[in-house]
Amino acid sequence: xxxxxxxxxxxxxxxxxxxxxxxxxxxxxxxxxxxxxxxxxxxxxxxxxxxxxxxxxxxxxxxxxxxxxxxxxxxxxxxxxxxxxxxxxxxxxxxxxxxxxxxxxxxxxxxxxxxxxxxxxxxxxxxxxxxxxxxxxxxxxxxxxxxxxxxxxxxxxxxxxxxxxxxxxxxxxxxxxxxxxxxxxxxxxxxxxxxxxxxxxxxxxxxx
Length: 208
Fold this sequence. Notes:
Elements: H1 9-20, H2 31-37, E1 41-44, E2 51-54, E3 59-63, H3 69-85, H4 95-113, H5 116-119, H6 128-139, H7 143-175, H8 184-199
Parallel strand pairs: 1-3
Antiparallel strand pairs: 2-3
Helix pairs in contact: 3-4, 6-7
């Protein structure tokens, strides 16, 4: 199922950082351990404003212990993005940059809470609801969160398979024609497709 999935540079960055501190499996995704390994202080305060505060020297994440452990973990992995990936005081940034950082943190949250290099090692049930339940249990997140991550993975697999089928179709179509007879437009289209494939880390088309 997972062979067509292409990890993003951010996913690869998270995987490298995790493995550098010995995080290899869902059981290793312990908030306090992760925070300590990255030099981040964790504070559990009832009804606290859930946020990260950081500068070049220190970082802290504030969590609300009144929530379920699954909800707390989801907040933690969102806020973890800020001190690890963002520089400067977020409050001093223009609104559009703050919104961009929040969008990045939402993506980071999915990757950090449920890293693909761990997900792919799990033998998931055939039925989606059961797969979501298993992932939620393994990674200690809410079922809606696990479903969102699984659907993201499924969507990217579908897109990769579709691209591969298109490439194969193009290769089959043009391999039957003499390249010497190709028009400039044909070569331009193939070169453009090549650049798109290579930019996504995939194998390009051989153009004579």
